[in-house]
Design a protein that fits this description.
Keywords (chain A): Cytoplasm, Molybdenum cofactor biosynthesis, Nucleotide-binding, Phosphoprotein
Shape of chain B: globular
Family (chain A): Belongs to the MoaD family. MOCS2A subfamily.
Shape of chain A: globular
Oligomer: heterodimer
Number of domains of chain A: 1
Protein name (chain A): Molybdopterin synthase sulfur carrier subunit
Number of helices of chain B: 3
Distance between the termini of chain A: 46 Å
GO molecular function (chain A): molybdopterin synthase activity; nucleotide binding
Strand order of the largest sheet of chain B: 1-2-6-8-3
Number of helices of chain A: 3
GO biological process, one term (chain A): Mo-molybdopterin cofactor biosynthetic process
CATH class of chain B: Alpha Beta
Number of strands of chain B: 10
CATH topology of chain A: Ubiquitin-like (UB roll)
CATH topology of chain B: Aldehyde Oxidoreductase, domain 3
Radius of gyration of chain A: 12 Å
Structural class of chain A: alpha+beta
CATH superfamily of chain B: Molybdopterin biosynthesis MoaE subunit
Chain lengths: ~90, ~170
């Protein structure tokens, strides 16, 4: 049996900290629990990386601190967006 | 859980990626190939334009006097192209542009080569000058692209634009 999952992409400092560019995590997951799930896998990531990051679900930014009731469904795409540096 | 393959946004084979709006003469590009400034100028060319402004951001060989060996960029196109579209549309509306190109190179960009091209045209020079600078600053603030500097001593650092102003000076926050 296949476990339902969502895909999470990491960039820049989040890639360095997790050692991954992407991974799949069990779905569904309430969005407000995302940082706790990541903290349990990557101890210290919340304070060192995630506090300065944005989060996208699908192709939309979401407010991780005000998302009561929002679920990350199976097959969804989530991205951790650290401070940017184009140019 | 299965091993995850490289996601498509990190696979150079899935580039270049474009988004264009022919009505507003907007041209956006993310590419792993060298950027061509003449191509950008050709795209913004218009019989209604009296001013054409081109900006090339090129990769510098130092960061705070530390020698940089090479730089590389990654993007997340689902968000990056959406963000660039919004920036371009806003600039066209605000400054009455007759054309705009925003192109960013990804992957390794050798020192002294262009990592970003901004080209804008307008009826008169004031609007194009202003728009060129403004578009670049908003891109640097918002576009979902990340730069990694690899130093000659082997260390690597992810850069954050929020730490530097347009003169390269450190921004003191809070």
């Amino acid at each position: 049996m296949t476990i339902p999952t969502f895909q999470i992409h990491y960039f820049a400092s989040a890639t360095t900290y997790t050692g991954k560019q992407t991974e799949s995590l069990p779905a569904p997951l309430p969005l407000h629990q995302l940082f706790d799930v990541l903290e349990s896998k990557y101890s210290g990531i919340k304070e060192k990386v995630l506090t300065s990051c944005s989060v996208s679900l699908g192709e939309e930014y979401v407010d991780i601190h005000d998302c009561e009731g929002v679920m990350i469904d199976a097959g969804s795409e989530v991205a951790i967006i650290p401070p940017v540096s184009s140019g | 859980m299965t091993q995850d393959p490289t996601p498509s946004h990190l696979d150079p084979q899935t580039y270049p990626r474009h988004r264009t709006d022919p009505t507003l003469n907007i041209h956006l590009e993310l590419t792993y190939s060298p950027l061509n400034p003449q191509t950008a100028l050709d795209k913004i060319s218009s019989p209604a334009a009296g001013a054409n402004v081109l900006f090339l951001g090129t990769t510098r060989n130092t960061f705070e006097d530390r020698p940089v060996a090479q730089l590389s960029y990654t993007a997340y196109p689902p968000l990056t192209l959406k963000t660039l579209s919004g920036i371009a549309r806003d600039a066209v509306a605000k400054h009455g542009l007759t054309g705009i190109v925003i192109a960013h190179r990804l992957g390794v960009v050798p020192i002294q080569e262009a990592s970003i091209v901004i080209a804008v045209s307008s009826g008169h020079r004031g609007a194009a000058w202003r728009a060129g600078e403004e578009v670049l600053e908003i891109c640097k603030e918002k576009a979902e692209i990340w730069k990694r500097e690899e130093f000659v001593d082997g260390e690597m650092e992810w850069r954050e634009n929020r730490e530097r102003d347009a003169e390269g000076k450190r921004v003191v926050s809070g």
